[in-house]
Structure formats: structure tokens, C-alpha cells
Amino acid sequence: MISVHNLSFHYTAGNAIRFPDFTVAKGEHCLLLGESGSGKTTLLHLLGGLLRHYTGSVQVDHTELSQLSETSLDRFRGQHIGFIFQRNHLIPALTVEKNLMMAPYLAAIRINEERITEVLSGLGLTEKRKSSVTQLSHGQAQRVAIARAVLNKPSIIFADEPTSALDDKNCDRVIHLLMDVASQNQSTLLVATHDQRLKEKISKQIRLTSGN
């Protein structure tokens, strides 16, 4: 499902970072561990096609990302990958429902009202469907971001530091929510984090160091 081999990336400043080889199987849950500056977010963006011009091999869902055109990559990402960023990137001017509709729209997929209802119900957000995202609590906004990421039933979910600013109770709630949603959709889940609390939650782990 995810395969990385001889991967390195050169930053604009000229610095280069190398990543260890690894594979993550279909439906598997995995932690990407490392301190700040170890390249976790960079790797996640490479795996999601948000960064390009790498050397080596990045295969996602049996597709080598470097071989896709920009247009094909945008479509592939929208149809196969769900991203949960450190910041939720919700559009303040839109309702919860309209924010979710952006996922199939950008992926050139038909908007499915029943799927929106299903996802909102599963995340306890049914009553917030027509609400402005500016009226949501932090936790509700985070759940909307998760809903948007899984709406298209992606085969892979990437989450970047989803628990770093949370207390223990909410940390447990969010990671179990991500794992449950991934399992329901039979999605591969890769969580980039330096949050040591998550090490007991997911057994498969890939560690990055500044020396990679």
C-alpha cells in the first residue's frame, strides 16, 4: 500500500534529508515517530504528493507518485488519500456541510448526500451539518476535518501531529477515533507524531532521526 525506497529530498536551502526504507500494508495502522526537525511532516507531504522532485521511490496504492502529472496527481490524491493536517484548514465562510462537499468536488467525484450524512452521524456531528464552522468548538472542528478526510473513502489516511496540543483524555479520544474511522473504511492509517503517548496505541512504528 505504501512503499518507500532510497528516498531523499533536497530543501530549497540546499539541505538534504534521507528517509529509511519501509512499507505499510493495506489496512495497517502505523506511527511515524521523531522529534521536531526529523522530517516527519516532509515525509508525510512526500507520501501525499504535496511535495515533489524527490529522489528514490515513493509508491502509494501501487502507484509511483513521480510518474504522475500534476493533474493526475491531484486526482489521485483526491480519490485515494485523506489528509488531516496540524491545522484543520476549514473554510470559515462555509458551513460544515459545504466544507465536506469540497472533498468530492476537488477530486472530481459526485457529491453523495447519503455519504455526508453517514460520516457526520458516525462522528457525532449530525446536528452541526448546517452550522458555520466558526461556531464550532476546537474538538468539533477537528472532527469535521476528520470527516472531510474520510468522506471519499480514501484507501490511505495521513494525520500530522493530531494530538500534540491535547490533554490525555482528548488524546485518547482522537487517536481511537482515527483508528476506528480507518478500520471502518479499511484504510491504511499513518500518523506522524512526536507524542510519546501514542506509542502504546499503535504497535507498528517507523522512527526518524535528524541523522537520516
Key words describing this protein structure:
212 residues, alpha/beta, Rossmann fold, 5-stranded antiparallel sheet, 5-stranded parallel sheet, 10 strands, 33% helix, globular
Number of strands: 10
Q: How many DSSP H or I helices?
A: 6
Unreliable spans are: none
Rg, nearest Å: 17 Å
Reported CATH architecture: 3-Layer(aba) Sandwich
Mean pLDDT: 90
Describe this structure in words.
The structure is a single chain. The protein has helices at residues 40-47, 70-80, 96-106, 113-122, 138-150, 168-184, and strands at 2-10, 16-18, 22-24, 29-33, 55-60, 63-64, 81-84, 156-160, 188-193, 205-207. With 212 residues, the chain is of the alpha/beta class. It has one domain: P-loop containing nucleotide triphosphate hydrolases (Rossmann fold). Strands 1, 2, 3, 5 and 6 form a five-stranded antiparallel beta sheet that branches. The protein has a five-stranded parallel beta sheet with strand order 7-8-9-4-10, with helices on both faces. α6 (168-184) links the parallel β8 and β9. It is globular, with a radius of gyration of 17 Å. The protein starts with a strand and ends in a 5-residue tail after the last strand.
